[in-house]
User: What shape does this take?
Amino acid sequence: MKPLLLILSVAVIGLAVGSVVSRPNAAPASTAVAAQRPPSVFYGHIKSMIRTGRRYEIRFDPAWWLTGVAAQRAALEDTGSGDVPNDYYIVEEGHRLLTFVVLPNARVDVLTGAAQHTRISAAELAQIVKGGNPNHRRLFERKAGWWIRIGEKYPNPAVSLFQQYQP
Assistant: This one.
């Protein structure tokens, strides 16, 4: 019985090697995985935004926006109660600031009412982050967090910034 097992093992290895060798134009596994990778999205707070040449740079304090069981367990560990109003709980860990590039044409949506957003420019957001309001908008929550979506190509800029309504 052992020789049969050896023969089957060699046959399986041979088939595996043969299938790799017979597809010389196949994409490497790492490329296939990278092509399927979802975009990077972060939640947190913008601490500063400055213009550097043709682009902006934000300093961003990431946090975890949790829902469901994850929110209940984190709230229980932090407060002693698993009650999670509005089914979300934000975990602020560490406050290490990350730097992201923001191009002038990035999509920026700021809260101007309860769950109402208005599209603005990156230049206007930079003024708002500094405490200004150049277009005299009725800003709903200056301190509300932001979702940022990061592009895939270097310098991996933030391609959209969306302020999160928090009931």
